[in-house]
Specification:
Layout: E1 2-6, H1 10-20, E2 27-31, H2 35-45, E3 48-49, E4 63-66, H3 73-82, E5 87-90, H4 97-110, E6 114-117, H5 124-134, E7 141-149, H6 156-161, H7 165-181, E8 185-193, H8 199-204, E9 210-217, E10 222-228, E11 236-243, E12 247-250, H9 276-279, H10 281-295, H11 306-324, H12 338-341
Helix pairs in contact: 1-2, 3-4, 4-11, 5-7, 7-11
Keywords: Oxidoreductase
Pfam family, one: GFO_IDH_MocA_C3
Organism: Streptomyces telluris
């Protein structure tokens, strides 16, 4: 099987190396708007460099992985659809709802597979917690607490095109909560804060460095989701599921960047997690392996791109709540309602 990878930045280079090592993949073609960068990645992973992103769609690949800058996602999704190619796209489909809907309609009209990159669905801890919740081991789950913390702010140029902390980071938690519980978010209330040395860059981008959201699910379960760009202890992604029978924690291990204040507590980690590629390395491999299987017709799409629309609508509601300081109900996606769609996977 021949796989094209469009985008040779940090995540694109990582995906190219992972895809090249998958069973059944014979050739990987890497493309980027910066051809020299694509050539360097191709040489490093044992792939071939295409002269341009457009050249990937010349009929010489069987599927495509889209890992370019977010603004390019809708156009590349449409190009893959018109070429009849199965596509994997890193989240988000687009930075706004209209762009997301246009891209989804392109793929739907072509009848092509479009898988979205929510890698937490493929993480061993998240999958175990989902099984525990769905089989009743926790009893009635009354509270969920989700944490996403980056160790340091990204460059200012990234902030300007990221869509903001809620859309860029907390959207992962919104998708994970839907996928874990099988429930929809009916109301949100969100706040944001900014301080410290990098405050000016965040304010210039209309963003915040720390955010918190209270979500209410359609069965009454309460969810708190927090995110920050300023967690100096390390990269921290945890989700706590608290039920009447038991409590499970995803992301609590020997590398969790936290120090216990208890005299008998565990020591601080010698090697805390440093970033998402390290923390979710195995999940990314499982995610792309699932895409290759689905592209071959050997399994279902494990994360249809429409799932990204639901998470984005929650993020948009949170942004409105943050700006207007009030509870907000997420919009219902066009052409489908929560009862019809249901979180997949």
């Amino acid at each position: 099987m021949r796989i094209g990878v469009v985008g040779a930045g940090r995540i694109g280079a990582h995906h190219a190396a992972v895809v090249k090592a998958l069973d059944g993949v014979g050739q990987v073609v890497v493309a980027d708007a910066d051809h020299e960068r694509a050539a360097a990645v191709a040489e490093r992973v044992g792939a071939r460099a295409a002269p341009s992103p457009e050249a990937v769609f010349d009929g010489r690949v069987d599927a495509v992985v889209i890992a370019a800058t977010t603004s390019a996602h809708p156009g590349l999704i449409a190009r893959a659809a018109r070429a009849g190619l199965p596509a994997f796209c890193e989240k988000p489909v687009a930075l706004d709802v209209p762009g997301t809907l246009r891209a989804l309609r392109e793929a739907d009209a072509a009848g092509t597979l479009l898988q979205l990159g929510f890698q937490r669905r493929f993480d061993a801890g998240f999958r175990a917690a989902r099984e525990a919740l769905r089989t009743g081991r926790l009893g009635r789950v009354h509270t969920i607490r989700a944490v996403t913390s980056d160790p340091a702010p990204p460059p200012p140029e990234f902030l300007a095109r990221s869509g903001g902390l809620i859309r860029d980071c907390l959207v992962h938690d919104f998708d994970a909560v839907r996928w874990l519980t099988g429930r929809e978010v009916t109301e949100v209330y969100a706040r944001g804060a900014t301080g410290g040395a990098g405050a000016a860059a965040f304010r210039a981008a209309g963003d915040v460095d720390t955010a918190a959201a209270l979500l209410t699910l359609d069965d009454g379960t309460l969810v708190t989701a927090t995110a920050t760009r300023c967690n100096g202890a390390g990269y921290d992604v945890r989700t706590e599921l608290s039920g009447e029978l038991d409590q499970w924690v995803v992301g609590l291990d020997a590398r969790t960047p936290a120090t216990s204040a208890e005299p008998s507590g565990p020591p601080p980690p010698a090697r805390p997690w440093t970033g998402f590629l390290e923390r979710f390395g195995a999940a990314y491999r499982a995610e792309l392996a699932a895409f290759v299987r689905a592209a071959r017709g050997e399994g279902p799409n494990p994360c249809p791109a429409r799932e990204g629309l639901y998470a984005l609508l929650v993020a948009e509601a949170c942004e409105t709540s943050r700006r207007e300081n009030r509870p907000v109900r997420p919009a219902v996606p066009p052409e489908s309602g929560p009862a019809e769609s249901g979180p997949t996977g």
